[in-house]
Amino acid sequence: MRQRKSSLRVSVVFLGAAALSGCGSGPRYTNRDMYANAEECQKDWGRPEYCEPGYQSGPIGSSRVWYGPSYGSNTNTARSPRAVGTTSVSRGGFGSLSSFHGGGG
Fold first, then answer.
1. How far apart are the first and last CA of the chain?
2. What is the 3-state secondary structure (H, E, C) of 32-54?
3. Fewer beta carbons below 10 Å: N end or C end of the chain?
4. Is 61 left (phi over 0), alpha (psi -120 to 50) or beta?
5. What pLDDT, in 10s, does the model give residues 47-65?
6. What is the DSSP letter of 92?
């Protein structure tokens, strides 16, 4: 019996440590700025391979956009005034990805 109590105590300690490590003060969002064209994206990020073509859905259809690379942030707003918006994923409890946000700049 004594062995069982000891292993239970160790498990509880590990679970508590794992829970606290997920509540860190790192970035809350993973963002990708959106641009109207490749040139504006490349001005911000400096390399063509950092800019990826894509589409953004809107009320009257979809439009062509360019996405910059992902970066961590504490807000879900675009990093650059050149960006026309941002796509972000917020971090939920224990470090998991929990929701998706899109916004205009």
1. 62
2. EEEECCHHHHHHHHCCHHHCEEE
3. N
4. left
5. 999 999 999 888 888 899 9
6. -
Which among 104, 100, 72, 65 has a CA at the least distance from the CA of 86?
A: 104
Q: Which amino acid is at 42?
A: Q
Report which DSSP code applies to 16. Answer: H
Residues 67, 32 contacting (CB under 8 angstroms) = yes
Does residue 92 or residue 81 have the better pLDDT? 81
Tell the residue number behind the tokens 């650059």, with chain if given.
80
| 104 vs 87: CA distance, rounded Å | 9
Structure tokens at 81: 């005034």
